Amino acid sequence: MNLPAGKTGKPIPINTDGLFEKHKKVYARSVSGVFDNWRWAMVFFTQALFYGLCWIDWNGRQAVLFHIVERKFYVFGMAFWPQDVIYLAILLVISAYALFLVTAVGGRLFCGYACPQTVYTELLMWIERKIEGERPARMKLDAQAMSPRKLRLKVVKHSLWLLVALWSGFTFVGYFTPIKELVSLSLDFSLGSWELFWVFFYAGFLYMQAGFLREQVCKYMCPYARFQGVMFDPDTLIITYDPERGEPRGPRKKKADPNAASLGDCIDCGICVQVCPTGIDIRNGLQMECIACAACIDACDDVMDKVGTPRGLIRYSTENALVKRYTAHDILAHLMRPRTVLYTTVLLAIIVATVWSLATRIPLKVDIVRDRSVLAREVDDGRIENVYNLHISNPDELAHRYAISVSGIEGIDIVGERIVEVPPSSARTVLLSARVDAGTGKKGSNQIFFEVKAQNHEKIVVREKASFFLP
Q1: Do 75 and 193 lie in a common domain?
Q2: Which of 240, 317, 339, 351 is the most buried (most CB within 10 A)?
């Protein structure tokens, strides 16, 4: 790249090599330990939930189903309609506050243990290790020219990756189209265009992001990595390296006394860097790329055991704990502070209010629309009539017979269907008219009330207001 010519008439060269960092593939080394076990436990839990929940039946239907075509959401014994969107908003608020609380207490724990990017990356990396071998073997294989063996290993690996990705995409769509119906359509090669699109869209992104992009998603694409620092404070638990104990670092013989060589406990083996899925060196301090997976803690503890020094050179701690030398009890005591107390209080209040609302909500919804084509008309018997459409929704798991009545004006009566039966998780629209004697009420709009009550359950009753027009 050259700028316009200078005073000498020659272009001024500019070196752009340092403007952009060349991407280096991260070959994460496998690790075992307490935190690795917890991470795999979360992988098993989240994937058992994701892959298995859509196959559970509940009262003859899929237990968890977001049926877009029917515009109904089923969550075990509860059915939600479009007008229940408030619960979706509340769920998002609860998720946000839960994320804020977890981050304020333990940093990026969600990223390290439950984030879909982390979970699927772990799954695909496990397949990669089983097919291509450990870190040195994978590095050696990628450095080799293409050969029949390399081609065979790559084809097997990517085939398994695609199989996981496609099954995940299929399962995802199974939460929006009944999974058994989806299987039947697939066997008949009659999947709809939107099902096919979302299966391959979800599978393609999983294959690309967990198979190839991996740490680049966490470093460059995920917005959470960018604003996590706003939610941290000096008492937030993070992955830390203890420089006071570890420095100066340097290699030594096993069981050798580090004090004799004026060295710290860190033997500079670099294993903490090799096991890091984002390829950072935690010894350089807290970094945006750290996803708090604690792989470096397991690796370092294993090395400390081998060289005969205490564990905890790399550990979960806080900035204040390192500076002020807090004990474990002091660290726990500082976890409860104004920020975390506020998050916890708000979160619990929202959860309690939501649970109470769901527990006490009436499984009946009534929408009333007055026929506006004719405001009012006089019928044969001299009475004044207004016509209404009552849309009765039954989100309950049982069928109900509803009795309809009206009040608000003296002598008002219903002409039409007074008893309506609605199947479970269904809706029905009823056309009926209300009539009053001429001269009753005031001219113009009068407020009336329709009452819809389940005959087999006296607590299921809804009273909705409407307007009755008198000429």
Answers
A1: yes
A2: 240
